[in-house]
Amino acid sequence: MKEEEIQINKARGMYYALLGMFFSYQSLSRHRQTAIAILEQIFANAINDQTQKDAQVLLNELEANGTARIEQEFDALFVDNFTYKCINLTASYYDEGWEFGEKCLKIRDLVLESEFRRNEEFVEPEDHLGFLLMFCSSLLEKANPCAIAMCQKIFAEILNDYVNFVVLETLKSKKAHFYKSVVKILGSFAEFERLYLDVTPPPLEEFVDLQDLKAQEKKAKWKKRVKADMDEDTLKQK
What is the pLDDT, as a whole number, of residue 213? Predict the structure, then answer.
């Protein structure tokens, strides 16, 4: 492997690790100093000007106030389903409309093929964005041809298809502040990966939530049924 390729893979692993911390529940608080160190490197050698600006935003917050406000925002955006429909972070949800689908099974098989195993502290499914990013980081850290090829497979067949949806849904959210910077970094890095790995980007489109669509259809049918019943009662009264 050429020295240039080694250095690029180290940088890729650094981005995967950083983003994995931001998208894994309470991981940022456990690895705050590592996140700061990576953000400093990204700020010094950013993919583009926007990534540098967003790295600075996150650096300022982590150094001044720690992880509390960022983790509160994570909960509001991606965990709390009681007061607000949160943004789903699993590949299966964007592929099939529910979790634990084919994408999850595919990742489980890939994990079994590797020497890594999911940490029991990680409660989310294997096709969760946080897990996928951390898994790719671990694969690139191994730096052997099989691990690097598996990382490419995960990006091309899993991450590439749905990462844009996560970026767009987060940017649209009124609850997002720090995570707008996070997903901008994620979006820029995904574009780099597509170019570097020669992966075709997915069509630029908004996500259609199948669960919401079904709920709206049921509501529309219920309204029609109620209206029909009311019309029938009116006719009887006449």
Answer: 47
In sequence order, what are the beta bridge partners of 4? none
DSSP secondary structure of the chain: --HHHHHHHHHHHHHHHHHHHHTSTTHHHHTHHHHHHHHHHHHHT-SSHHHHHHHHHHHHHHHHHTTHHHHHHHIIIII--SSS-PPP-BHHHHHHSSSSSHHHHHHHHHHHHSS----TT--S-TTBHHHHHHHHHHHHHH--HHHHHHHHHHIIIIIHHHHHHHHHHHHH-TT-SHHHHHHHHHHHHHHHHHHHHT-PPPP------HHHHHHHHHHHHHHHHHHHHHHHHHHHH-
Confidence (pTM): 0.85
Q: Decide if pLDDT at 220 tops 60.
A: no
**Mean pLDDT (whole number) for 64-86:** 91
- Judge contact between 110 and 161, C-beta under 8 A: no
